[in-house]
Automatic annotation (TrEMBL):
This is Chloride channel protein. It is found in: Membrane. It is a multi-pass membrane protein. InterPro entries: Cl-channel_core, ClC, ClC-type_chloride_channel. The keyword Plastid does not apply. SUPFAM superfamilies: Clc chloride channel. Keywords: Chloride, Chloride channel, Ion channel, Ion transport, Membrane, Transmembrane, Transmembrane helix, Transport. PANTHER family: CHLORIDE CHANNEL PROTEIN CLC-E. It comes from Cobetia marina (Deleya marina).
Length: 583
């Protein structure tokens, strides 16, 4: 006996399931795809950096600026800002926005849709800024590339916009995971910094994406983290007061960095050429004496943890690297800031560890321990992401014993930066300085998790304004809920009326004598309609209804070129009912 043929699930069914808030299997599949794609892009980006270093960098290492002659390493930033200035200077200011801040902005205001031009700009600027010796990291470009590519996949498949948001979070997590080899920190970073919310439907696909990104990176670069970390323990609980003081100092440094980076308005008084010159000349001046401030700085961080850096170099990493990175951001050079912030925080922690060793030589813990605490404290304070910083610390050290002082350091530094320096976090602060408000209200956050098809009424029939009684009876045989009356002139809005009202008219003796019915004249409830696309989220639908004079939206999608079909109707009451009684 042959088995009955089971039809394969269509892409339309896949999209329809994704529209709901509980589409975990479908979202997990997308998360896995996003993680593999982002991990591959991260590996490709690192290989591009290595290929770019061939021939002119000592040992073909993209971070070995110390091996270059002073005039060479000082010339590289000037050449880098020249290239970046030419590439970005001819474009609209909106297209110069790159990196993590751009991802958050697109997620907040554009449902995670990423423009291709900015994505291509990120490749060029990311490679040039690192190889050109600016104080820049690779994590920001990796996150932008991963989030942009993941979103592009969703757009090409015409997935609902609520799933595009999850894809952006998946690309973010995989970017951090593949860069540091810290999958848990990647998940927390995506939810804490980019999505700014924790949900079950968000966690599972993001975890899969972060795992896949780490696996791809480990297949090429091995299972070791971005830099070697020695095994360390807190010497004594008597060290905790000094840990608090260290965190206070780092919190103040983090606040100063964020405030300096926010000076875009002042920097904008200069011409574009003047800003590029300021970035290039300031970096060249410091790099002439201290090349450790150039590039990402992970090689310097590894030497720092081994105790191989002198006091003046540590000071240069703390002050010079923070200031140069902040000047880049303020002047409009879109660099990655996570790497420089981590390195500067480790240097600040090492300096405080040295000072603690001089004050209490018998009780102080190892300087490398303070360097790691400083790294986590600076990252947590600048980003206002304490959980991501703690998870990074745990995964990099593989030592749960360091979590106790790490928690104390991260919380104290974060509070100091937030309360004393009045900083909300680097990306929130820089976007707020541009007049943007990336923090969404709880209502809009909840509505953005669901797409219109999950709530709309699908029992809809399009009808002309005037129909015969026979035609009306034929339409009602399919038992529609709403009738959409099409207009002959596009200037006037479309109108919907309940099918039940038409049934009552057909049964009314007063209307039985009329062979033709005018649906805009019969006694019925009518709703003025405005269009919205099938891929939109409930937050988009709600915002579409708020400023308009319409009562509901008709959902349309393109079935063929220049042919649109009405798929359903969504009312304000339906949206509010979903939010009030959502599972």
């Amino acid at each position: 006996m042959s088995r009955p043929h089971l039809p394969r699930p269509s892409l339309d069914n896949f999209r329809r399931k994704l529209a709901a808030v509980d589409a975990l299997p479908q979202l997990c599949l997308l998360g896995l795809i996003a993680g593999l794609l982002t991990g591959s892009l991260m590996v490709g980006f690192r290989l591009l950096l290595s290929a770019g270093a061939l021939g002119f960098m000592p040992d073909d290492s993209p971070e070995n600026f110390e091996g270059l002659a002073p005039w060479v390493r000082a010339s590289l930033p000037l050449l880098a800002v020249l290239v970046i200035g030419i590439v970005l200077g001819r474009q609209h200011p909106a297209q110069r926005k790159l990196g993590i801040g751009h991802v958050i902005e697109r997620l907040t205001y554009h449902q995670g849709k990423m423009p291709l031009r900015a994505w291509l700009n990120q490749i060029v600027v990311g490679v040039v800024s690192v190889l050109g010796g600016l104080s820049a990291g690779r994590e920001g470009p990796a996150i932008h590339l991963g989030a942009g590519a993941s979103s592009w996949v969703g757009e090409r498949l015409k997935l609902p916009n609520n799933s595009l948001r999850v894809l952006v979070a998946c690309g973010t997590a995989a970017g951090i995971s593949a860069s540091f080899n810290t999958p848990i920190a990647g998940v927390i970073f995506a939810m804490e910094v980019v999505m700014m919310e924790y949900t079950l439907t968000g966690f599972m696909p993001v975890i899969l994406a972060s795992t896949a990104g780490a696996v791809v990176s480990q297949l090429v670069y091995g299972a070791e983290p971005a830099f070697a970390v020695p095994s360390l323990l807190l010497h004594s609980l008597l060290d905790l007061p000094w840990v608090v003081i260290t965190a206070l100092v780092i919190g103040l440094l983090a606040g100063g960095f964020v405030h300096l980076a926010r000076q875009q308005e002042r920097a904008a008084r200069l011409t574009w050429s003047g800003r590029m010159a300021l970035v290039g000349l300031s970096t060249a001046a410091v790099a002439w004496w201290y090349p450790q401030v150039q590039g990402i700085g992970y090689d310097s961080l590894a030497q720092l943890l081994d105790g191989q850096l002198a006091l003046d170099v540590l000071l240069a990493l703390v002050i010079g690297k923070l200031m140069l990175s902040a000047i880049c951001v303020a002047c409009g050079v879109p660099i990655g800031i996570i790497g420089p912030v981590v390195v500067a925080g480790a240097a600040a922690g090492a300096l405080m560890g040295m000072l603690g060793g001089w004050i209490l030589p018998d009780q102080a813990s190892d300087i490398a321990l303070y360097a790691l605490l400083g790294m986590a404290a600076m990252m947590g304070a600048v980003l206002q992401a304490p959980l991501a910083a703690l998870m990074a610390l745990l995964e990099l050290t593989h030592s749960p014993n360091i979590i106790l002082p790490g928690m104390l350091a991260v919380v104290v530094a974060g509070l100091t930066c937030r309360q004393l320096c009045h900083c909300q976090g680097f990306f929130i602060s820089t976007l707020t300085a541009q007049g943007l408000h990336p923090l969404q209200q709880p209502l809009m956050q909840a509505l953005s998790r669901v797409a219109v098809p999950a709530v709309m009424e699908r029992s809809v029939v399009s009808v002309p304004r005037r129909i015969t009684r026979e035609r009306a009876r034929a339409l009602l045989e399919s038992k529609p809920v709403w009738l959409v009356v099409t207009r002959s002139t596009p200037e006037k809005p479309m109108v919907a009326l309940p099918a039940a009202d038409l049934v009552r008219v057909l049964m009314d003796e007063h209307w039985r004598e009329q062979e033709a019915l005018d649906l805009l004249e019969i006694p019925a409830q009518r709703l003025d309609l405005a269009p919205i696309h099938l891929q939109a989220t409930l937050s988009e639908a709600y915002e579409r209804l708020l400023p308009s004079n319409v009562d509901a939206l008709y959902v349309e999608h393109t079935t063929a070129p220049m042919i649109r079909k009405i798929s359903g109707i969504i009312t304000r009451d339906a949206i509010e009912s979903y939010y009030r009684y959502k599972p």
